[in-house]
User: Which sequence fits this backbone?
């Protein structure tokens, strides 16, 4: 996913959910602070944006129904929104004050997506502790997007995790991945190098239906 695609999802989510403020907490929230992350096949691998509506939380389920996985939106553009909630990710205290706004203006409408600051995102990844999370973190470290001291400080500001275990993992990761060359592409499927594309016919059909009021983007 790239920033333009994220912005498209934000505009679509705002229209479906009737809320112009959206919180983005998944891996693609990195695009708020570092749009250039889309150039890295590991950091941009996910084609879903984990989000929820800031002011109308209950409407988030409508967003997933309209532009979520398997929807016409997804089939047409190759990316989609994933419904989450305020308690989905384990995050450090004060994360709300560090959000990076992504402001999108189009046709007289202004939509703001609030993306996690990269150290807060990293803590959520360490808390989740899945293999794909550790690969994502390794690339963030290798590309110099994380500071070890700041990351450790955020660990101490986070509930529901085992601080010493996470800190030891952080230290190992920095020792292994910081300032070293690694072929992270070997961890990703070949198709991850290029997002899936729909045919021009499908795209044109979708646009036609939108203009007729049959779908919302």
Assistant:
């Amino acid at each position: 996913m790239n920033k333009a695609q994220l912005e498209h999802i934000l505009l679509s989510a705002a229209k479906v959910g009737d809320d112009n403020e959206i919180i983005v907490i998944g891996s693609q929230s990195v695009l708020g602070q570092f749009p250039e992350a889309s150039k890295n096949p590991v950091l941009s691998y996910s084609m879903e944006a984990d989000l929820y509506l800031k002011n109308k939380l209950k409407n988030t389920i409508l967003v997933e129904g309209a532009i979520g996985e398997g929807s016409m939106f997804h089939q047409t553009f190759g990316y989609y929104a994933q419904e989450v909630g305020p308690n989905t990710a384990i995050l450090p205290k004060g994360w709300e004050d560090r959000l990076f706004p992504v402001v999108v203006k189009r046709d007289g409408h202004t939509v703001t997506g609030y993306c996690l600051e990269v150290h807060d995102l990293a803590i959520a990844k360490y808390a989740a502790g899945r293999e794909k999370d550790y690969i994502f973190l390794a690339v963030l470290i290798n590309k110099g997007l994380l500071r070890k001291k700041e990351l450790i400080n955020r660990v101490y500001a986070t509930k529901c995790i085992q601080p010493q275990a996470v800190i030891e993992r952080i230290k190992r990761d920095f020792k292994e991945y910081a300032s070293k060359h690694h072929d992270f592409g070997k961890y990703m499927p070949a198709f991850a190098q290029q997002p899936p594309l729909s045919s021009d016919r499908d795209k044109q059909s979708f646009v036609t239906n939108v203009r007729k009021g049959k779908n919302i983007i």
